[in-house]
Records
---
Amino acid sequence: AQKVTQAQTEISVVEKEDVTLDCVYETRDTTYYLFWYKQPPSGELVFLIRRNSFDEQNEISGRYSWNFQKSTSSFNFTITASQVVDSAVYFCAPRMNRDDKIIFGKGTRLHILP
Amino acid sequence: AAGVIQSPRHLIKEKRETATLKCYPIPRHDTVYWYQQGPGQDPQFLISFYEKMQSDKGSIPDRFSAQQFSDYHSELNMSSLELGDSALYFCASSLLNTRGAAGELFFGEGSRLTVL
């Protein structure tokens, strides 16, 4: 079974700092999909980014960027110039090719301090 | 753009009562998922449906059942409610381009169930 580890339980940074959230996953599948979701205090789950295992190109989207390293099974997510509104719980969530569901990590609670 | 609609948003029940949650997926999405999130916990997968057939089952109690109807909406039925069933219940939908190809899940705002 797949497993995902978010070692950082809680992080606090001052506004405008960059912050990286770590995610390590385990899988025996060769094709899989990785997601990051954000859950703000209001409770909804918001899709942020998706990465396919067969595409290792790292990208930047606005203030978000991600670093996918298949060799180390890591899928880290970076917020540049953090803002108070970024305060939320962030979940790393892998999805294996033959499974429909996604499995959530335990989440990292991010506090952006003004 | 249309999103996943869940109802009711809040529900309060007594122990041993029954509750039904409804989910209306994004139009043309073919897969519906149910997740349960306890306080301070990560969302836990309960069950999913692909084209109205159950496609996967997770840690769903036997007291719970779900189905997807011909119009693709889904209902989660919970009976003999226990205090531990108090949680946020999410429904999500996605579109599988081909069987097994993974699109992102879009989540509804959740239904908060409180069991007293």
Note: Chain B is about 0% helix and 50% strand.
---
Amino acid sequence: NAGVTQTPKFQVLKTGQSMTLQCAQDMNHNSMYWYRQDPGMGLRLIYYSASEGTTDKGEVPNGYNVSRLNKREFSLRLESAAPSQTSVYFCASNSGTGVQPQHFGDGTRLSIL
Amino acid sequence: AQKITQTQPGMFVQEKEAVTLDCTYDTSDPSYGLFWYKQPSSGEMIFLIYQGSYDQQNATEGRYSLNFQKARKSANLVISASQLGDSAMYFCAMTSGYALNFGKGTSLLVTP
């Protein structure tokens, strides 16, 4: 039972480099989300996709772009990484109907030097 | 805007005892959901329990129960018969639509 799968699990980048975090879910969920977690904080929403073909900004979208590739996959791109983007990134999904629990991937630990 | 407050940065409990983790919230939305997640030291976010704002009964899931007091805007997590494996960060969260808004978490340490 894979659930939500994130790749990579760890990544180190230099300032200015770009990269894409991948997320896939196998639960046939409509909605997908990207969060970041900084030390001593709860998670904060970066972007979400309520359904295939739509994306919307969350609380902290600056410096990121997203693509809902299909119903299963939702990617997060850092075009020009900055040290302030050092964080743990979580992808989540849920059915999107009503108020439903979100199910999370294991996270990607990203360090920007 | 929604706000979640967890006032206990850290808690200790002895094995087999019950523990209550506090969560208060603020929202003007009439319909919302309240959630608790567990984050062990390995880092994953594990969904524990959910309460809808219109639910009459408090939610229970095994050893977890949610003490929902709507008038006080509180949604405390009660863990009965604590186990060593319950040691983790616990996050309260709420939503009225898509985004989950999280508190800063409570670190729980279960001692033998």
Note: The two ends of chain A are 35 Å apart (CA to CA).
---
Amino acid sequence: GAGVSQSPSNKVTEKGKDVELRCDPISGHTALYWYRQSLGQGLEFLIYFQGNSAPDKSGLPSDRFSAERTGGSVSTLTIQRTQQEDSAVYLCASSFPRTAREIDYGYTFGSGTRLTVV
Amino acid sequence: GDSVTQMEGPVTLSEEAFLTINCTYTATGYPSLFWYVQYPGEGLQLLLKATKADDKGSNKGFEATYRKETTSFHLEKGSVQVSDSAVYFCALRSGAGSYQLTFGKGTKLSVIP
């Protein structure tokens, strides 16, 4: 697609329920990133996928968070047993990762999914 | 670890006023520095970048100079417009081989006619 597409754009869920957030990256971008934007905070790195390599999960805040990327394209971020502190905007980005220039200029963000846990 | 500190908002300016948003950073090595902008209802967009000391990034009338001696990358614009109203994020990428961006908390700018 022309840009990074995320769905849903808004999600309200009850505490304790599981949620799935979807990201469809730019066609051909092999690198995919998830970030979280909490109220009053900057963007927090969550996870990075590059091709068939093992993902960098170093930013996931707890084991309730997981993500997968099927076929090197679409990614799903899953939050199990949601808590109120999970309320945030979840942003996905994609890029070509081969060179620094490609990362810097090609890092493209989606519009995000606003998650509200009530 | 890497960190970015930018001035707290919100910032409210009249149209045609001068804008400065301060940004300082802590990083190992020689990071690339960025300003991203988030307009209402839209995703983050790269506004400008600089990759080495004394580089000046510029776009849409905005400028920022990479100052290694003061570890700063302040954003400036000489005459803001209502359409510049947005949230501005300073960010860095730690250098060769790094793909993760470290962001500041963002500064909301409102420009009134």
Note: The CA atoms of residues 1 and 26 of chain A lie 5 Å apart.
---
Amino acid sequence: AQSVSQHNHHVILSEAASLELGCNYSYGGTVNLFWYVQYPGQHLQLLLKYFSGDPLVKGIKGFEAEFIKSKFSFNLRKPSVQWSDTAEYFCAVSRYNFNKFYFGSGTKLNVKP
Amino acid sequence: NAGVTQTPKFQVLKTGQSMTLQCAQDMNHEYMSWYRQDPGMGLRLIHYSVGAGITDQGEVPNGYNVSRSTTEDFPLRLLSAAPSQTSVYFCASSRDPYTGELFFGEGSRLTVL
């Protein structure tokens, strides 16, 4: 069973539309949370991360994510997408003492100009 | 600063052939890992290493071997390639597998006929 779930596999938006991508995880205990992005033809790079503190974290390029512990969720948001945001987005979780990162299946975002 | 370097970028093999995917990093990271990326399945961990001489299995280790003789290098070996191993392979390294972000290589696209 998928332990990091991304519910939207493919999202199509027009420029200036708002974006929210869902991510849920099923691990108990202390976790760190990440969103990675893979632009077409490029390798994965970190978008933002949450370790502790303010559950609303801001990343690069205007992205933000909110950690809701009670819902085991870490959803990614952007108020107004651009064509250059077209990419695949991956949610990831790391667990204390497990030496592993667990990735979701990814969400492909297609932004129409 | 090269970061994580993977070679080759593309490879075509016949069933039963062997090959090694190379991965090198110049960031002095103790943690290194190999993932495979398949459509709709996200990234799945094959093997990882927390330091020279120490390796362990991930989610999908069958058919792959690794070794870690130096901090810099973490090669992935396919001893007898199968069509099911057709995939894109990513090497990633991190300063710390719990708190550190993963730095990815550009990927190696492998096709097994």
Note: Chain B has a mean pLDDT of 93.
